[in-house]
């Protein structure tokens, strides 16, 4: 978030503002919807653990009366990104703690039925982009299942290969994206 805000501010001050922010990386995939090596493009970027724990369960900051928990990339941008890369569109959760148990995965799935993946940076990047009025896109290549911690199940190399291939197709598609499309 800090780096994105700094880059956006520096570019704006230099008179060459960015037109789009892309947050990309590896991530955990909710199974079976987002298999290892597959790509997810966020149609919602949601802070999954930004709020308060209460005796009755988790309350997002929005229910505490302030803040934001979801940023929504432009629909046309999501469509273009999925069309170019074959990615699935769904909610990508931003977490501060990587999910490591089946119980936590189930809790997140209950709270966010549209979630396909989780990562750690998307929401902060989206906050910075929103502060500058710049659209945001989040792309995750699935390196591990969301669930019980199992380092043997990680496929970071495969995910990075998928992400690299996706960017070969994504970059030209983004160049031709018209921000005024709906
Ligand atoms: O130690 C672990 O059990 C563990 C499991 C998965 C990921 C990590 C990381 O520290 C990854 C940080 C890095 O990768 C992204 N990422 C990848 N998989 C996940 C995930 O399942 N949940 C959240 N973030 C993930 C993350 O965006 C960071 O860039 C450790």
Description:
The protein is 37% helix and 27% strand. It is of the alpha/beta class and 182 residues long. The strands form two sheets. It has a five-stranded mixed barrel. A two-stranded antiparallel ribbon has the order 3-4. α3 crosses α6. The radius of gyration is 16 Å and the shape is globular. Bound molecules: the ligand O=C(O)c1cccc(C(=O)CC[C@H]2O[C@@H](n3cnc4c(=O)[nH]cnc43)[C@H](O)[C@@H]2O)c1. The site of ligand LNDFFVEH has 16 residues, from β1, β7 and β8. The ligand O=C(O)c1cccc(C(=O)CC[C@H]2O[C@@H](n3cnc4c(=O)[nH]cnc43)[C@H](O)[C@@H]2O)c1 binds next to β1, β7 and β8. Pathway: Quinol/quinone metabolism; menaquinone biosynthesis.
- Which runs of at least 5 residues are low in confidence (pLDDT < 50)? none
Structural class: alpha/beta
CATH top level label: Alpha Beta
Average pLDDT works out at: 97
Residues in helices, as a percent range: 25-40%
Total strand segments: 8
Biggest sheet strand order reads 1-7-6-2-8
CATH topology-level name: Rossmann fold
Integer-rounded radius of gyration: 16 Å
Order of helices and strands: HEEEEHEHEHEHEH
Give the names of the bound compounds: ligand LNDFFVEH
Euclidean distance between termini CA atoms: 27 Å
Name given to the CATH architecture: 3-Layer(aba) Sandwich
Number of domains: 1
Count of helix runs = 6
The CATH homologous superfamily corresponds to Nucleoside phosphorylase domain
Task: Assess the beta-strand content as a share of residues.
Answer: 25-35%
Shape: globular
């Amino acid at each position: 978030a800090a780096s994105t805000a700094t880059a956006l501010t520096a570019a704006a001050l230099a008179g060459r503002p960015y037109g789009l922010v892309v947050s990309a990386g590896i991530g955990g995939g909710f199974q079976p919807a987002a298999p290892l090596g597959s790509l997810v493009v966020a149609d919602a970027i949601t802070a999954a653990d930004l709020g308060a724990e209460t005796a009755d369960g988790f309350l997002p900051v929005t229910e505490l009366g302030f803040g934001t928990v979801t940023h929504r990339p432009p629909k046309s941008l999501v469509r273009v990104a999925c069309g170019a890369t074959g990615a699935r569109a769904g909610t990508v959760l931003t977490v501060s703690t990587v999910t490591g148990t089946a119980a936590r995965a189930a809790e997140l799935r209950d709270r966010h039925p549209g979630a396909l993946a989780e990562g750690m940076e998307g929401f902060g990047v989206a906050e910075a982009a929103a502060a500058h009025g710049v659209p945001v896109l989040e792309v995750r290549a699935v390196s591990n299942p969301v669930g019980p911690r199992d380092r043997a199940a990680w496929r970071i190399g495969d995910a990075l290969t998928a992400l690299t291939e996706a960017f070969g197709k994504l970059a030209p598609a983004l160049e031709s994206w018209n921000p005024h499309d709906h």
